[in-house]
Specification:
The protein has 23 helices and 13 strands. With about 675 residues, it is α+β, with helices and mostly antiparallel strands. The chain has four domains: about 110 residues, Alpha Horseshoe (Serine Threonine Protein Phosphatase 5, Tetratricopeptide repeat); about 80 residues, Tetratricopeptide repeat domain (Serine Threonine Protein Phosphatase 5, Tetratricopeptide repeat); about 55 residues; about 250 residues, Phosphatase 2c, domain 1. The strands form three sheets. The chain has a six-stranded antiparallel sheet. A hairpin with a 5-residue loop joins β5 and β6.
Length: about 675
């Protein structure tokens, strides 16, 4: 078998910066101090952030790189430094594409291309054309990919941008390989190799070595493939480029497989898969799992083969789904339409100016023809002028109305896009039902986006650490972590805080290895405060949270809360465990959160919730619903099916609220043991 469509050149997008840092380790703390030092020149601070994003996080923690690049972009916009805006957009696009989210990736790349065209920065234009080509190649659309690579190469050659020429040639070589045109592929990669060596571009050199390793592996010239691949691996490890390390390891593993060195093949492919999982590199996971599936299948290891095949299918479909490809094409068409519209607007303005000039000349000629009718003409001019003024005012009013409507649509489009971002942090209903079949989630944001959110991860202790479960098959060796959180505010501000808090929960569990609820909340508070401390202003935002842990093996249930309780049924009663009276955020005299153990039997139910339901105004007197009535309703319905409990909550909320406005986000989760 052979490998297909690796993500060849994402580590080649930011070549100018890479040339400055190919052999030096990046001191993130030192660069962070430069970024925070407002006394330094703006460009020095932005260059420091470039290095932090690219060499510190992009190929190891792409989600963190996205957050930092967002800050860089906002600062560059404030200072009107468009070249750095383009760089930040490239980092953000790359961070999503590395994780298989090509829709958001192409969105940021086309925005970067548009700005590069505005400032006539041909190097940035070539980069973004290449980036868009990489996405099409990743989706298997070789024709579109080659079109963008050729445009990038032609632009680079026209303005003698040799480093850009090198990575465009490298990408074209990858397409020739995919099409089976190996002679053209080798020629393109050798040209890329030569240009990179001339420019002392070690990253470009490593990339060309890597692609040559892929090409010779496809041709079954394994001696050459191993030589090129090992040379590339050494350089990528030196750079700390984990994405490329994983890809090269997969090639080496495939070569071991072809020479019947099965043990070595499995060992290095498992390393490649682990690195890709750690960085959430979708392509790396796809290729490593595909090759492991092939080996396990030949070895007769059915369970291992099935797990790898399911992982491969999930990663492949996340990148190459029909919907994904359609949305990528829509992004491109939108960019093309806006570009053409801008050109049409300029042409219209030019024609209007010519018409206005002709009209003015005609007036002068008309006034000179008959002086005897001067008073009539003056009167006519007066009447005409009044009519024109009235018409102009009408046009202004209509244009202002159109502007307001356009701005409103723009804002709504932005908020709807923000909802897509927030939805990405919520666990899918399918995932929750697979691991907690006896459960329901009543989630009703006040606005399009919400400050309330729920969170769930299923973890298992493997290879000396707690890992996220990648398959959807429940197991008794798992620990289920679940939370309901209420962030400061609602709508867009609340949603922004929710993303910060959700990211802190993920880091507390997977980066710092916390599994006890109280300790998870302690670490989450520390990470949230650390994030907000970077602001010059006194940010007091945070969240209230109810956090539950269920050990499926030992049946042990633990819980901790920050200003948010948990309720559970026991012997026809609804018992409450009160939370610690402090938020996840800035507080006076903070203390460690308490972890409670809950003794439940089969059939008992747990409820976690935010305050939105109880605080909703309604009823005949416009009063709050209150917690007492909510407790009574939950206890009364506890023996019903989860679907009927959910329906009961929906009906009760709608009947209580009637025509009044919803006052807050609402989230109630029920779990039957």
């Amino acid at each position: 078998m052979s490998l297909h469509r690796f993500k060849f050149l994402f580590y080649f997008l930011f070549f100018t910066l890479l040339q400055l840092n190919t052999s030096a380790q990046v001191n993130v703390d030192s660069l962070s101090n430069v970024w925070k030092d407002a006394s330094r020149p703006d460009t020095i601070r932005l260059q420091a952030m470039q290095r932090i994003c690219l060499k510190g996080y992009l190929y190891s923690q792409p989600d963190t790189a996205f957050i930092l690049a967002n800050k860089m972009y906002d600062f560059a916009v404030e200072k009107k430094l468009k070249h750095y805006q383009v760089f930040a957009l490239q980092v953000m696009g790359t961070s999503f594409s590395l994780r298989g989210d090509n829709i958001r990736g192409i969105d940021y790349f086309t925005r970067g291309l548009k700005i590069a065209e505005e400032i006539n920065n041909y190097k940035d234009m070539a980069n973004n054309l290449n980036n868009i080509g990489v996405i099409y190649a990743e989706q298997g659309n070789n024709k579109k990919a080659m079109e963008y690579y050729q445009r990038s190469l032609e632009l680079s050659e026209k303005f003698n941008k040799k480093t850009a020429m090198a990575f465009a040639l490298g990408n074209l070589g990858s397409i020739y390989k995919n099409l089976g045109q190996y002679d053209k592929a080798i020629e393109a990669e050798n040209r890329s190799l030569k240009l990179s060596e001339e420019n002392n571009d070690k990253n470009g050199y490593a990339n060309a070595l890597y692609v040559l390793g892929v090409i010779y592996s496809d041709q079954n010239d394994l001696e050459k493939s191993m030589d090129f691949s090992n040379r590339a691996l050494k350089l990528f490890e030196e750079f700390g480029d984990k994405n490329s390390v994983s890809n090269v390891m997969t090639i080496i593993g495939l070569n071991y497989q072809r020479t019947n060195q099965t043990k070595k093949a499995i060992e290095i492919l498992k390393k490649a898969l682990a690195i890709s999982k750690e960085g959430e590199f979708i392509t790396g996971m796809r290729e490593a799992s595909l090759n492991l599936y092939d080996i396990y299948k030949k070895e007769g290891k059915a369970a291992e083969a099935l797990a790898m095949h399911e992982l491969y299918i999930a990663m492949r479909d996340s990148i190459q789904s029909e919907k994904n490809q359609q949305e990528v094409m829509q992004k491109e068409m939108q960019y093309t339409f806006e570009k053409q519209k801008a050109l049409d607007d300029k042409e219209n303005e030019k024609q209007l100016a010519i018409s206005a000039e002709k009209e003015q000349k005609q007036k002068i000629i008309s006034y000179s023809i008959t002086t005897g009718l001067i008073f009539v003409l003056l009167f006519a001019f007066f009447v005409f002028n009044r009519l024109r003024l009235s018409n102009k005012q009408k046009i202004i009013i209509e244009s202002q109305k159109d502007l307001v409507e356009a701005k409103q649509k723009e804002i709504l489009d932005s908020i709807n896009y923000a909802k897509r971002l927030q939805d990405a942090i919520l666990p899918p209903a399918r995932f929750v039902k697979e691991h907690l079949p006896e459960s329901f989630i009543f989630y009703k944001p006040k606005d399009i986006v919400a400050g309330d959110f729920y969170w769930m991860e299923v973890i298992r202790f493997e290879n000396g650490k707690w890992n996220k479960i990648e398959t959807n098959k429940p197991s008794d060796s798992e620990i289920i972590l679940m939370a309901v959180a209420d962030c400061t505010g609602h709508g867009v501000p609340g949603a922004m805080v929710s993303i910060v808090c959700s990211n802190a929960l993920n880091r507390a569990v997977f980066e710092f290895g916390m599994i006890e609820p109280g300790k998870i909340l302690d670490k989450t508070r520390e990470l949230v405060l650390e994030t907000f401390s970077k602001s010059d202003k006194d940010v007091k935002d945070g969240m209230d949270i109810s956090f539950l842990s269920i050990n499926k093996g030992s049946k042990e249930i633990k819980w901790a809360g920050a200003n948010s309780p948990i309720w559970y049924t026991k012997e026809n009663e609804l018992i409450e465990i009160k939370a610690d009276k402090q938020p996840i955020g800035k507080t006076v005299n903070p203390s460690a959160f308490t972890t409670h153990s809950i003794q439940l039997q089969q059939g008992n139910s747990l409820f976690m919730l935010t305050d939105g339901f109880a605080d909703q105004f309604g009823g005949e007197r416009g009063k709050k619903f209150k917690y007492k009535a909510l407790k009574e309703m939950l206890l009364q319905n506890a023996n019903l099916t989860q679907e009927k409990q959910m329906q009961s909550l929906e009906i009760a909320f709608k009947d209580w609220k009637t025509n009044l406005e919803q006052v807050d986000d609402v989230c109630v989760i029920g779990v039957r043991i």
